[in-house]
Amino acid sequence: MKVVSFLPAATKMIYDMGLQEHLYGVTFECPKEATDLPKIVRCILEGKNYTSVEIDRIFSASKAQGKSLYWVDDELLESISPDIVFTQDICEVCNIDTVCTETAVMKLSKQPKLVPLSPNNLQDVFDCAITIAKALGKEEVALKYLAGLQKTTDNILDKLRANRAPLKRVMLMEWIEPIYNCGHWIPFQIAAAGGVDMLSNPAGDSIVNQWEKILKYNPQVLVVAPCGFDVTRSMEEMEILIQKPGWKDLEAVKNNQVYVADFDMFTQPSVGTLVEGIEALACMFHPEIFTPDERISKKFVNYSEYINQKVFANK
Predict the structure, then answer these.
(1) CA of 143: how far to CAs of 149, 174, 185, in Å?
(2) pTM score
(3) Contact present, 220 and 257 (Cβ < 8 Å)
């Protein structure tokens, strides 16, 4: 059975479950495990280093004109002749959507089965792993995979309860300029890590938040994880935030609990990466209880500590 993934999260879960023998094509954004596979989906933003403002402007203009940021290599897709194509309908900025996929697939001489993966909450993401494995006739593999990840989240919850850890007032930003709150499964990740984000939109799209609203909310912990940005890339834009009026008055800033994190723990919805996100968030919210291991410690930084280290290194 030949599979093509138009969704990085699906690609990641296929590899995590050991089902990559079926994978014949991916997108340009798919994880490093799929580096050697043909890239079927490309993007007009690929290889460019646009700022948050520029990316938002390009997307808004494309949407207003009814155009997509993505395109499909029709000849390459035809040569693979897949049996199954995994796609999504959650975000037309992050990945190619099902409508664009259907348009490309209509041109094929052999029509594959389209399997859209469009989770809204954390449980939906878990269910997506089962959908993927079931499509490949390997449902039992997904159940074993999920059981291991569930054990990790259960251990975090048990530790929070044992230490009577208070809920932390949190904000997680999915974009810097304009500022977007977090939506879909991320508020559930925050809850699983011992926090609550009252500015979030659980099981729904992230939306623009005004800075004045954030100042009034005054989060105890601020997590900056722009979609598509790793820590290094996000650091290039932190100046936008720290120059805003009232930045130094935020409780998170005063208490040195501003964190910058890799996006793939939050807006790349594979079960494994989202569980990593819960582990990382628990360490950010409750550093007195949780210590990140070497794997998790590479995925986020404390902003204040990072800046101090940079200053010290430059002396």
Answers:
(1) 10, 30, 20
(2) 0.89
(3) yes
